[in-house]
Amino acid sequence: MVGGRRIRTIDIHAHVVVPEATALLGVTTAPGDPSVMGPSQTPARFKTMDEWGTDMQALSINPTWYGAERDVATQVVKIQNEALAGLCAKYPDRFVALASVALQFPDLAAEQLEEGVKKYNLRGAAIGGHVNGDELSAPKFDPFWRKAEQLGVLVFMHPQGIPEMNKRLEGNGGLTNVIGNPLETTIFLSHLIFDGTLDRFPGLKICAAHAGGYLPSYAGRSDYGCVRFPDGCKAAKKKPSEYLRQLYFDSMVFTAEGLRHLVAECGASQIMIGTDYPFPWSTTTVDHVLNTPGLSDADKRAILGETAAKLLRIPG
After folding, report:
1. 154 DSSP β-pair partners
2. Who has the most CB within 10 Å: 9, 15, 160, 310?
3. Strand partners, 56
4. How many CB atoms are closer than 10 A to CB 26?
5. Cα separation of 3 and 300, whole Å?
6. Which residue segment(s) compose the domain that 223 sits in?
């Protein structure tokens, strides 16, 4: 209850795996993996969701098929999107889902997104932060971005790692994840801004995992970089920080001050709760929002579920 109103909490960042699809990529899913949605795992997921205060999850699959040939990638995506559609049809009060797409073939990805939305009732797409080292701001990916804008659906970006950084990040601290994931998100968003993608497709609805990485915390440097190096900013029509108000972010910043700052930089209307389920990064996500000082009831309602319900077209 927020301000006397019951809010349906919607988690924008929740993972799932479809073993039949990963098997086509030569990957075996471990028995009992909580990312799998088999009959034995589903009750445990619902139990955890209830404990965490999560009414619904927007299911997404981390892309591991960007290196696959076209035929294999087509098969993997079809199996996954059918499985996601089945889960949502079986548990419509707990799940919506984001389509898988084979972004290494942008024309195919655009077709898969359209099929996912129109045939399978999926609510957008889940993508990685780069495709085999290529930035997603490259013109060759425009067919996918054009289709996402045309359909008016959400694109959720989750980082997949920065292979060329692995040497620097190895050792203690789990840095490939702890630093590498938000860094990749920062790079992804920065290219969309500085390479003009967000201006070519101003209607895009993009949500970046891990609270947008480091970008919202250091957007002032991006702005001042355009004063120092104006030739590098000619493709962007606005100050870099201004794009934060047209992007979306999950709430994974871990502290009340982090969330307060994210709201100050991006606006409460641009933030949705994210837990990273089944990975225990954010087991108190709902309480985190409820207990952050300075948020109005309207802010809390937006972050907990209202914005996600609108973007994911979940009826009231």
Report:
1. 124, 205
2. 9
3. 10
4. 8
5. 9
6. 10-28+45-311
Domain for residue 275, yes or no? yes
Question: What are the distances in angstroms from CA 134 to CA 139, 140, 147, 215?
Answer: 11, 10, 19, 20
Domain count of the fold of the chain: 1
CATH of the domain at 59: 3.20.20.140
- Tokens at 85, concatenated: 């559609």
- Would you say 239 and 217 are in contact if contact means Cβ atoms under 8 Å apart? no
Q: Is residue 316 part of a domain?
A: no
Round to whole Å and give the CA distance between 268 and 35: 29
The identity of residue 153, as a single letter, is: V
Tally Cβ neighbours within 10 Å of residue 278: 17
- 82, 101, 123, 136, 310 from 314: Cα distances, Å: 19, 22, 9, 28, 7
Q: Is the peptide bond before 278 cis (omega within 30 degrees of 0)?
A: yes
pLDDT per residue, tens digit, the chain (316 aa), is 999 999 999 999 999 999 999 999 999 998 888 999 888 889 999 999 999 999 999 999 999 999 999 999 999 999 999 999 999 999 999 999 999 999 999 999 999 999 999 999 999 999 999 999 999 999 999 999 999 999 999 999 999 999 999 999 999 999 999 999 999 999 999 999 999 999 999 999 999 999 999 999 999 999 999 999 999 999 999 999 999 999 999 999 999 999 999 999 999 999 999 999 999 898 899 999 999 999 999 999 999 999 999 999 999 8
What tokens does 3 get? 């301000």
Bridge partners, 124 (sequence order) = 154
Contact between 25 and 100 (Cβ < 8 Å): no
- Judge whether 37 lies within some domain: no
**Which strand ranges, in their side-by-side order, compose the sheet holding 56-60?**
10-15, 56-60, 95-97
Q: Are 99 and 117 in contact (CB under 8 A)?
A: yes
Does the residue 116 lie in any domain?
yes
